């Protein structure tokens, strides 16, 4: 948090001096967004660097060894952030308004996701537990093993869906950062709870077969701290945007945490705001193609409320509250499923 809080200010200055600001095209968004043109973007670099520094320092100070699970999640976050950085780079440095073409962007996400998926089912510990499992999971693993090929496909679907969902949510000042903080806070609690009730060392009822639950909580904590520091500058009115660099990186952190804590489907509940906003785009596009009619004035959903006349700060705060309710529901489901009947 300190690294992001202190480091974002000089980042804003550097980006402004180089005239590397958001370019808002006429007709692309609601009219109010035209005033944001020129606001420095690509601030997600700060979130990534702050997270990596926080994780490294935390382990150096405590002398607790880094784990395969923690490093894989941060690698997924950094890899997707790099894909986003290329997109932002083309927009800002090369003055190409659309950045990476959709096919190239998707290819980058799939490549990073595939590497993560393959590595995640390796590195067994002394109890033969790997960072990820080839089973589907909600609060814990269930059903038969998918096998390596289907598991990789499943991870690719999760990675692309989650990273793009966070990217769609990043349309108002502080919206994506604030919502991500809430979901990450949930994973701090989930990781700690799994650590205190893990099967290898605590033979308790409804224990968890998770390789590195405590380090999952550490990763969630450092990324949450980085987002908190960044939100100081990104909250309305934003002095800097995270750009695709930050949005894709945060999506990678969330999906990585879901996979290594074996709560893949639970992420749909915890990240319910991201799901809702993504579905608004799906509904809008589907309705227009099938019926030539729009359901919303504009998609994603938060821009619809802007067009209706809600102030931006009102939308952000109310959407944060909705995100908090989804997180509360997800944590409640997680706890109730463990609680002895």
Structural notes for this entry:
This protein has 341 residues and is mostly helical. It has one domain. Helix content is 65%, strand content 1%. It has twelve helices and two strands. A two-stranded antiparallel ribbon has the order 1-2. β1 and β2 form a beta hairpin. The longest helix is centred in the C-terminal third of the chain and has 27 residues. The model has no long low-confidence stretch (mean pLDDT 92).
Pick out its properties.
2 strands; 65% helix; 341 residues; two-stranded antiparallel ribbon; mainly alpha
- Helix content percent band: 55-70%
Strand content: under 5%
Radius of gyration using CA atoms only: 20 Å
Strand line-up across the major sheet: 1-2
Mean pLDDT: 92
Helix/strand layout:
Elements: H1 2-17, H2 44-62, H3 68-92, H4 102-120, E1 136-137, E2 141-142, H5 148-169, H6 175-196, H7 213-234, H8 243-260, H9 267-270, H10 272-291, H11 301-308, H12 312-338
Antiparallel strand pairs: 1-2
Brief synopsis:
The chain has 341 residues and is mainly alpha-helical. The protein has one domain.
């Amino acid at each position: 948090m300190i690294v992001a809080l202190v480091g974002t200010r000089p980042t804003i200055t550097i980006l402004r001096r180089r005239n590397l600001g958001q370019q808002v095209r006429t007709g692309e968004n609601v009219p109010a967004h035209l005033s944001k043109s020129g606001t420095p973007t690509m601030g997600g670099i700060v979130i990534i660097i702050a997270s990596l520094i926080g994780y490294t320092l935390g382990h150096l100070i405590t002398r607790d060894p880094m784990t395969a699970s923690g490093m894989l999640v941060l690698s997924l976050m950094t890899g997707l952030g790099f894909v986003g950085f290329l997109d932002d780079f083309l927009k800002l440095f090369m003055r190409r308004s659309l950045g990476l073409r959709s096919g190239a962007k998707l290819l980058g996400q799939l490549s990073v996701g595939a590497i993560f998926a393959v590595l995640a089912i390796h590195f067994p510990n002394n109890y033969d537990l790997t960072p990820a499992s080839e089973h589907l999971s909600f609060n814990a693993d269930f059903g038969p093993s998918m096998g390596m090929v289907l598991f990789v496909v499943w991870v690719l679907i999760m990675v692309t869906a989650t990273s793009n969902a966070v990217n769609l949510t990043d349309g108002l000042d502080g919206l994506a950062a604030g919502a991500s903080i809430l979901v990450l806070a949930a994973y701090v609690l989930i990781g700690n709870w799994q650590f205190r009730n893990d099967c290898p060392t605590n033979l308790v009822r409804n224990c968890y077969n998770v390789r590195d639950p405590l380090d999952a909580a550490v990763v969630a904590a450092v990324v949450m701290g980085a987002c908190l520091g960044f939100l100081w500058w990104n909250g309305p009115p934003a002095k800097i945007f995270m750009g695709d660099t930050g949005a894709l990186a945060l999506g990678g952190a969330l999906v990585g945490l879901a996979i290594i804590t074996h709560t893949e489907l639970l992420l749909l509940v915890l990240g319910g705001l991201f799901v809702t906003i993504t579905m608004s785009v799906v509904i809008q596009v589907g309705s227009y193609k099938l019926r030539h009619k729009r359901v919303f004035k504009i998609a994603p959903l938060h821009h619809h409320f802007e067009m209706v006349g809600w102030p931006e700060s009102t939308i952000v705060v109310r959407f944060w509250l909705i995100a908090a309710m989804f997180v509360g529901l997800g944590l409640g489901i997680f706890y109730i499923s463990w609680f002895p009947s």
